[in-house]
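Lecture notes, continued. The same structure-token format from the folding unit now serves as the input rather than the output. Read the line below as a description of shape only.
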């Protein structure tokens, strides 16, 4: 599933291309979006909020997409425009560019007033990649839910928007923290370091190229999707355990992260 750095890349690309251009053609497979007339109106801004993307138009409407597991945005010069098909949530043609969102589980249109009162978006926590973000506010949010396991808390978009499974596993490993320990067992200083480094790595990965948290070997990640393989620090086996109500996968090294066997439920393969 795309995480906050992926959405930020899309935001930057759309801002470089279609923003301030007027819509020449518009298509949506969703009748609720297709009923709005976008032709002749310009895209005045594109913003990423955590894992959500918002396109603001000059006539006051906003298109919201969430990519889920299989969604994606493609931005191409108008000369490379492709045909519409049923999986297109939206397809926008401007004077110079063609931008299409495909296979996204969430695609909707709303006014800016409705955006401010949206039941999901209005409850998002601060975006981890927001410029000038006060990281201490995220630490405070984490500690308010202190009885929840740290790995589960990091995925709560109401606490901090944009962190997903990959960064959860990778940065907890790099910080040598137990994902299954209660959040309030850690100090504010440990949690601040965790958030600072998560933000740092996500900002690095906004640059073009594959997402990575590890250099020097063929693998680009320390633990994510490496269950059953040897830890590159201590040589013990990487493990995976399901965590939280949604049973999201958490990858970790029990030795490096000092995860006691009493936490149980360990799986040594994907």
């Amino acid at each position: 599933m795309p995480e906050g750095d992926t959405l930020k890349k899309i935001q930057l690309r759309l801002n470089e291309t279609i923003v301030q251009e007027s819509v020449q053609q518009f298509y949506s497979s969703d009748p609720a979006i297709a009923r709005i007339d976008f032709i002749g109106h310009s895209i005045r801004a594109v913003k990423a909020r955590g894992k959500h993307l918002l396109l603001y138009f000059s006539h006051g409407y906003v298109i919201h997409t969430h990519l889920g597991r299989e969604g994606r945005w493609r931005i191409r010069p108008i000369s490379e425009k492709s045909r519409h098909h049923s999986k297109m949530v939206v397809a926008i043609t401007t004077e110079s560019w063609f931008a299409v969102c495909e296979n996204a589980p969430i695609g909707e249109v709303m006014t800016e007033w409705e955006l401010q009162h949206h039941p999901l978006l209005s409850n998002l926590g601060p975006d981890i990649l927001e410029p000038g973000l006060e990281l201490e506010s995220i630490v405070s949010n984490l500690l308010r839910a202190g009885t929840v396991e740290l790995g589960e808390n990091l995925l709560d978009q109401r606490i901090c928007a944009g962190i997903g499974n990959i960064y959860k596993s990778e940065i907890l490993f790099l910080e040598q923290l137990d994902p299954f320990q209660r959040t309030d067992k850690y100090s504010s200083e440990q949690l601040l370091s965790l958030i600072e480094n998560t933000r740092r790595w996500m900002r690095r990965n906004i640059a073009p190229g594959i997402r990575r948290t590890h250099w020097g070997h063929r693998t680009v990640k320390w633990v994510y999707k490496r269950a059953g393989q040897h830890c590159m620090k201590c040589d013990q086996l990487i493990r995976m355990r399901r965590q939280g109500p949604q049973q999201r996968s958490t990858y970790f090294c029990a030795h490096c992260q000092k995860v006691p066997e009493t936490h149980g439920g360990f799986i040594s393969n994907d």
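Point for the exam: The first strand starts at residue 25 and ends at 27.
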